[in-house]
Amino acid sequence: MVQESFRSTSPSFVDRHATEGDGIDVLLLTLDAETFLERSLLSLYAEVPVAHLLVCDGGSKDKTISILKKFPRVELHIRADIRTTGKGVEFLLSRATTEWIVFTDADLSYPKGWYDAMCKYRDKFDAFDSRRIHAYEFYREDPAVSDPNERPLVTTPQMGRRKALANFRVDDDYMWRITDIAVRQTIEKNGYRYGKVTAPFHFHHTTEGVKYTSDPSKVYEKITFEEPKVTVVNPENLRRTLIQVAKAYVKYIDPDLPYVKRIDNLLVLLEREWVLENGPAWLEKYEKAHRSRGARGKLRNVLRETKRLLTELP
């Protein structure tokens, strides 16, 4: 379904593509994203010449869908059957047609000049991220985003050549998280360049609340503002999510990538037979993790480092 006209009464709506043309497809995954979505899309359309906004929604039950329908050139796919971010990215890539594409999230906004600054790096990289500023009503730059050997912690690179992601494939099973690593791995295996740039930056908005309430199986945390912290509200869902993350690493990711780090506490959640069958290249790291931890990790051992793990999940 493509929505052709913007029906908001917002006086701040600017559609760069309408005045300039030369559009670029933008890919967006949503699930219960109403909190920041309209602010994010107003920023996006003003800054980026959006040819089509390709949306894969996981079955939102808040105002996400009604907000999306206000904007022009939205191709909306409500796909509650798609359970993971990785599969959602694969699906959206199949819908994109422009040479270059932009990935965004429903809680990102863009300062004036972001798109033009990003375009200056097209000759240097085939896919790249911009610097991130966390917006907790105050701003903190995320230094890891500038380090090429650290994860960007965004779903995917924010701009890239579509052909650099040719043959990106995952099953719709474990990759709810770490899609950024799988995408970068695909780009590099296809012989293209991945990079990070620090002149342009974007904002990442976060607020208090529980995410993903439309899908109870994905609810494991809520955010409360004191010194901003994450509280585990469903340890079993957290444990199940961490197992999915561990399986996604083993099934899809090369264990020798320099930006895959500190996952011993995930590996010990898996059974050796599963690792051997689905990712034998990980067996050495798996056995080393067990030797360093003793017996197979229990939930209390995982929760000991929950704060760090949650921080590293995009």
The separation of the N and C termini measures 28 Å
Helix/strand order, N-terminal first: EHEHEHEHEEHEEEHEEEEHHHHHH
Backbone CA Rg: 19 Å
Categorize the overall geometry.
globular
How many domains is the backbone divided into? 2
SS summary, helix count: 12
Low-confidence stretches: 1-9, 295-300
> Structural class from helices and strands?
alpha/beta
Supply database-style keywords.
314 residues; alpha/beta; 2 domains; 21% strand; Spore Coat Polysaccharide Biosynthesis Protein SpsA, Chain A; 3-stranded antiparallel beta sheet; 10-stranded mixed beta sheet
Task: Detail the topology: elements first, then pairings.
Elements (H helix, E strand, L loop, with lengths): L1 E2 L12 H5 L3 E7 L3 H14 L2 E8 L6 H5 L5 E5 L6 H11 L4 E6 L2 E2 L4 H6 L7 E9 L3 E3 L17 E3 L17 H11 L4 E12 L3 E2 L10 E4 L4 E4 L2 H18 L11 H4 L4 H7 L4 H11 L5 H5 L2 H7 L2
Report on this structure:
It is built from 12 helices and 13 strands. The protein is α/β, with parallel strands linked by helices and 314 residues long. It has 2 domains: 2-205, Spore Coat Polysaccharide Biosynthesis Protein SpsA, Chain A; 209-312, no CATH class. Strand 7 (127-135) and strand 8 (139-141) form a beta hairpin.
Outline of the structure:
Helices cover 33% and strands 21% of the residues.
